[in-house]
Every structure is written in structure tokens, then in C-alpha cells.
Amino acid sequence: MAFEDLLEDPVIQKYLHELVGPKGMPVAAAPPDGEVTDEELAEDLDLELNDVRRALFILYENDLASYRRLRDEDSGWLTYLWTFEYDNIPENLESEMYRLHEALEQRQEYERNHEFYLCEICSIRFEFGEAMDFGFECPECGSPLESMDNDRLVTAMEDRLTALEDELNIDTDVDVDA
């Protein structure tokens, strides 16, 4: 998929924005063809050199950019020539989805296996043990802690997990006889 096609996708735009932040987004959104130096990018995009370098290294850490070093024979200075590797974006997004799925499964299990109490004044949630330690009174305002029903939260997580499983083609049917 070409850079232009990838960058038109709002999911990919959001992913890049989450990686490099608002200051790095011009770098991520304007990948040049071929190699480019950080100084050239900073000048072309009218950005601070440190912001460009930060974005490039974040892209590098996420396998979305690579570089090669050249040493100037006379001065000994190193020049970094950067290449953008956006072909890896779909694979990275899929990995992120698997991580999200695993985190949601763990959180859903936590929500199912714990009993919670809520201070309705402060909107602070406590596990049963914490609530018991505080005598079922909010340590902030002294209001009584009320038992909290988190079924809607667990159901929302279940719906999100199902959607992720459909997207990732995860088979959740477990053979009980095995």
C-alpha cells in the first residue's frame, strides 16, 4: 500500500498521532520518497530539529523508519539518512489489537472477580478489602460507600472483546471434550 493511501486512513492517522504526538505528526504525515536527513525534514516542514529527531526515533523504535549512517571523511561528523517503512503499519496495528484484546481479557476477569464499593460524592471506587479497611466510609469525605454493580462495564468489555475477536479472526470456541 502506498504512503498516500495509508495516510488517508483515519485509523492510521490516529495510530501515528498516538505514536509521535502533535509535534511529530507533520514528520509522520509527510514521509518523503527515498532517504532524507533530519535537518532536511526540519527545514522542509519548518519544525524544530529536536521535534523532528524525536519523531524519527519513535518511528524507528516502532519499525516504521530506518536509517543509515554516513561519516564525513573530512570532519568525522555522522549524517543519518532516514527512510520511512510504512509497509509495517498494518502489521503493527494488528499487534496492537492483540495487545488490547489481552489487556481487555485481563481487566474483564479482574472486574468479574472483585466486589467494588463506590463513594457517590467523590466518585472514588474501592475494592471490598479497601472498603472494609475504611469501615465502608469514604476516606475523603466520610460518606458511606455503596455496593457497586459493574455488570454494565463487564458487558461492554465483553462486547468489545467480541468485536476484536471478529476483527482478528480469533476462534473462542473451546472443545470441552479435549
From TrEMBL:
Domain (HTH TFE/IIEalpha-type) spans: 8-90
Give the matching Gene3D superfamilies.
Winged helix-like DNA-binding domain superfamily/Winged helix DNA-binding domain
Presence of keyword Lyase: no
Q: Which GO terms describe its molecular function?
A: DNA binding
Q: Which UniProt keywords apply?
A: Coiled coil, DNA-binding, Transcription, Transcription regulation
| PROSITE patterns in the record | HTH_TFE_IIE
Signal sequence span per UniProt?
Answer: none
Q: Per the database entry, which stretches of residues form a coiled coil?
A: 93-120
Return the InterPro entries for the record. Answer: TF_E_archaea, TFE, TFIIE/TFIIEa_HTH, TFIIE_asu, TFIIEa/SarR/Rpc3_HTH_dom, WH-like_DNA-bd_sf, WH_DNA-bd_sf
Primary role: Transcription factor that plays a role in the activation of archaeal genes transcribed by RNA polymerase. Facilitates transcription initiation by enhancing TATA-box recognition by TATA-box-binding protein (Tbp), and transcription factor B (Tfb) and RNA polymerase recruitment. Not absolutely required for transcription in vitro, but particularly important in cases where Tbp or Tfb function is not optimal. It dynamically alters the nucleic acid-binding properties of RNA polymerases by stabilizing the initiation complex and destabilizing elongation complexes.
Q: Which family does it belong to?
A: Belongs to the TFE family.
Quaternary structure and partners: Monomer. Interaction with RNA polymerase subunits RpoF and RpoE is necessary for Tfe stimulatory transcription activity. Able to interact with Tbp and RNA polymerase in the absence of DNA promoter. Interacts both with the preinitiation and elongation complexes.
Domain description from the entry? Answer: The winged helix domain is involved in binding to DNA in the preinitiation complex.
What is this protein's record name? Transcription factor E
- Lineage, uppermost ranks: Archaea, Methanobacteriati, Methanobacteriota, Stenosarchaea group, Halobacteria
